[in-house]
Task: inverse folding
């Protein structure tokens, strides 16, 4: 995507002097060339150069930076690895970008109690790697786990392929150390099963950096499953595949992972990854089961039977670990595969009740023709999380706008069928308008009131995640009158 | 009692109380009146028990949505017909426990360490806040990160953040087979044994120590349970369900006492010296204590180990029933409470004493 030239504002010399009093000179970035790498996160369509980037290394430094920002009334945006897909870490023109990448140490790994105490900049996968020698792992595995940071996972309440069985970030973290904008250092949660008072872990997880700066996380580790197996089933139509997903659940099986791909996604990934997918199938399901040897064997047979009952034209059980990984490879390569066949693609992240899948896919097909844009579907079928990928070419005039209009319609449909505008990528700046579709003004006011309890001056990541009522009023008015996006007065690149 | 949607009437009552500067005591089936602080300024009762019924249940979506006054027993029956259950195993309390009260008090049963707590299964709620506004958060889908997680925040809030009207809960299949094994050992060994069971993927859903015996519940596929049984040995109990039921419903002989009962949450392997008889559940994470010893002799050793102690039943109900919070945290939580209920309509003092 292309971007209009972002506005910039230079940091005042007094601010830089103050920050230099807190941090080593190398950890305060203010020259345009230094700021450039931080102007976007994983959602590169939105770019904005911050006034200044700070890279604190200690909790004390975080607290002192926040004190400076508070005194000066400067907004602060926290950033981890910058892999977020909703622009949650998009800098603000007159703001400070606090990069927590230097908080990259695993402070303690307790194999006996099966916990790890880590800093927010630690990569998700690094925790599982450190735990592996003890036969343990950290369960949530977002597809960006090789790069994404655990602090970002907390901010977004990240999921992953295995969350139907093993839960989201909120189910797998025990304790957070947080610095508030007022400079208080708080411990949320505990190593015990629960804590007195309100469930502060629930409030903080998924709050997209609007409530406090997380400086330490204690995660729960699980024993590695001894056996893992994968079934690949092919179907002649998407409806049967959808019904088979319900059939697996109805049979009393909770798969470790259950993924669906439609024909377009199958073809594109097969061309790219050569993983042996049946390219004539309208849909494939990948169903993973794990547990003990006996348990896995039994589940596998039942899954295969359910697939056949629901009209699978082909059921393949991965013969060995190599084939299992090969089957997964295609699914994991779905995004890059799209990048190969289209100059640009736009990834959507809605969740729907699973039984609405045929209706939603049918609508998407219809709109695909209407908008003249191809759409591929990869789908966390187990938990209803859709990732339609709209293929477009940003160099074709109007194509991005059509893509965004198409995406907006899909998200509105997700809400209409009882789902949500974001399953795991967060709202950030990307879906701020869709929040007005999902929530009524009383609900948004409640969100703002909660935010105010933590951050009365609204300095932490302002403008993200929860829209102002005014913004929704403008969006709603436009929405009703025109029936579709885009809105020229809003910044949408 | 018939299913009924009383949302509008309940909202009107809250709005009226808010407008008049009054307060309300939320009450469902009344099964947990013993729990929490006695109200400082008891207001009129806001009855939720008539607002009841399963609104939506889709077995293959693994979710049930029910109104606040719906008895847990009724939910269990509906789920059971479809071979499913509430994984967090809440007490039914003679059929009086309701969905709303279960969320408010956050009571999870013996399966909690392995299957998750109440909060882990809450997908969405409809809520009336202290301003009398009807709000909806979350929904019926497993993955949903739009907006703050207000639904989970309601769990354990003792009704002080709002009246939960309706909750959507994640459900799971019932295990195919369930057995209970007994092992004789000393307390310290029991703690190490129970903690160590988490090192490998066993189909474990209960681990309790009392009277020199560890009881383990294995539940899952028949194949997995029988393999685990032969691996662990231990003595199989003739009735698997009895002990877990008695723990879940607080009907175990341990709870048959005139002494105050404390609930103590602790990190793995912590072993405080406590002034009274204990029963250790949740594989070591939840200790029950019968004691009328001074509060400090209970809370101090527990705090030192990173745990917290709740005066669960009996004792001084006007005191700090819940473990006191550090000042900055207490101040933040009070601001959160006011964000939902600025005029203090709901259950004033039920959780912490009303300030000033």
Result:
């Amino acid at each position: 995507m292309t971007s209009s030239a972002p506005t910039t504002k230079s940091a005042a010399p007094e601010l830089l002097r103050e920050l230099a009093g807190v941090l080593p000179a190398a950890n305060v970035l203010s020259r345009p060339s230094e700021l450039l790498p931080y102007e976007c996160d994983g959602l590169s369509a939105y770019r904005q150069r911050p006034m200044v980037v700070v890279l604190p290394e200690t909790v004390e430094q975080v607290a002192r930076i926040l004190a400076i920002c508070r005194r000066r009334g400067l907004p602060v945006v926290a950033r981890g690895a910058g892999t977020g897909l909703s622009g949650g870490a998009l800098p603000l023109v007159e703001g400070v970008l606090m990069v927590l990448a230097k908080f990259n140490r695993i402070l303690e790994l307790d194999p006996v109690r099966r916990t790890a105490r880590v800093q927010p900049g630690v990569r998700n996968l690094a925790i599982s790697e450190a735990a592996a020698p003890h036969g343990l792992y950290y369960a949530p595995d977002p597809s960006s786990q090789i790069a994404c940071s655990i602090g970002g996972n907390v901010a977004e309440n990240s999921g992953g392929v295995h969350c139907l069985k093993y839960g989201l970030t909120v189910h797998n973290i025990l304790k957070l150390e947080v610095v508030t904008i007022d400079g208080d250092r708080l411990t949320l949660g505990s190593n015990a099963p629960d804590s007195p008072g309100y469930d502060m872990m629930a409030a903080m997880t998924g709050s997209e950096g609007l409530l406090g700066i997380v400086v330490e996380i204690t995660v729960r580790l699980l024993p590695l499953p001894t056996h893992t197996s994968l079934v690949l089933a092919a179907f002649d139509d998407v409806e049967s595949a959808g019904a088979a997903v319900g059939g697996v659940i109805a049979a009393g099986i909770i798969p470790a992972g259950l993924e669906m791909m439609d024909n377009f996604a199958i073809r594109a990934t097969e061309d790219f990854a050569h993983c042996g997918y049946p390219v004539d199938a309208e849909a494939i399901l990948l169903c993973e089961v794990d547990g003990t040897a006996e348990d896995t064997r039994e589940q596998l047979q039942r899954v295969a039977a359910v697939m056949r009952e629901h009209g699978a034209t082909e059921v393949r059980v991965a013969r060995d670990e190599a084939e299992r990984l090969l089957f997964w490879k295609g699914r994991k390569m779905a995004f890059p595969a799209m990048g190969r066949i289209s100059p640009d693609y736009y990834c959507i992240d809605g969740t729907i009740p699973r039984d609405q899948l045929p209706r939603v896919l049918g609508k998407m097909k219809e709109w695909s023709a209407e908008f003249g844009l191809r759409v591929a579907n990869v789908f966390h079928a187990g938990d209803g999380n859709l990732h339609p990928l709209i293929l477009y070419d940003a160099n074709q005039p109007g194509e991005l706008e059509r893509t965004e209009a198409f995406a907006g319609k899909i998200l509105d449909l997700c809400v209409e069928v009882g789902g949500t505008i974001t399953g795991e990528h967060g709202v950030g700046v990307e879906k701020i308008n869709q929040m007005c579709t999902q929530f009524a003004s009383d609900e948004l006011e409640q969100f703002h009131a909660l935010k105010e309890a933590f951050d009365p001056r609204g300095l932490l990541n302002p403008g993200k995640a929860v829209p102002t009522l005014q913004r929704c009023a403008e969006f709603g008015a436009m929405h009703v009158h025109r029936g579709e996006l885009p809105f020229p007065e809003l910044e949408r690149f | 009692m018939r299913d009924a949607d009383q949302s509008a009437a309940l909202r009107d009552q809250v709005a009226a109380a808010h407008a008049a500067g009054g307060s309300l005591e939320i009450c469902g089936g009344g099964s947990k009146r013993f729990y929490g602080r006695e109200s400082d300024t008891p207001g009129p009762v806001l009855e939720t028990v008539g607002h009841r019924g399963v609104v939506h249940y889709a077995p293959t979506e693994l979710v049930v949505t029910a109104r606040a006054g719906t008895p847990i027993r009724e939910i269990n029956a509906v789920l059971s017909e479809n071979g499913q259950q509430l994984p967090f195993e809440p007490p039914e309390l003679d059929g009086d426990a309701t969905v709303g009260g279960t969320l408010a008090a956050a009571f999870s049963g013996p399966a909690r360490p392995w299957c998750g707590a109440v909060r882990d299964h809450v997908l969405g709620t409809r809520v009336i806040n202290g301003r009398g506004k009807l709000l909806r958060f979350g929904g019926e889908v497993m993955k949903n990160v739009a907006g703050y997680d207000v639904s989970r925040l309601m769990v354990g809030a003792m009704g002080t953040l709002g009246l939960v009207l309706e909750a959507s809960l994640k459900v799971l299949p019932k295990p195919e087979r369930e057995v209970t094994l007994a092992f004789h050992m000393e307390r310290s060994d029991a703690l190490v044994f129970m903690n160590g069971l988490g090192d490998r993927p066993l189909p474990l859903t209960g681990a309790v120590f009392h009277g020199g015996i560890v009881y383990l519940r294995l539940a899952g596929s028949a194949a997995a349970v029988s393999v685990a049984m032969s691996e662990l040995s231990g003595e199989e109990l003739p009735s698997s369900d009895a002990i877990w039921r008695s723990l879940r419903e607080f009907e175990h002989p341990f709870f048959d006492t005139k002494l105050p009962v404390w609930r103590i949450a602790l990190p793995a392997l912590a072993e405080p010296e406590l002034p009274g008889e204990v029963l250790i559940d949740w594989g070591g994470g939840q200790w029950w204590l019968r004691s009328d010893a001074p509060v400090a002799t209970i809370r101090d050793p527990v705090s030192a180990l990173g745990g917290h102690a709740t005066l669960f039943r009996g004792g001084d109900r006007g005191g700090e029933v819940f473990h006191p919070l550090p000042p900055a945290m207490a101040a933040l939580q009070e601001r959160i409470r006011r964000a939902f209920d600025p005029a203090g309509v709901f259950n004033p003092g039920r959780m912490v004493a009303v300030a000033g």
Q: What stands out?
A: Chain B touches chain A through 83 residues (CB under 8 Å). The longest strand of chain B covers residues 163-170.
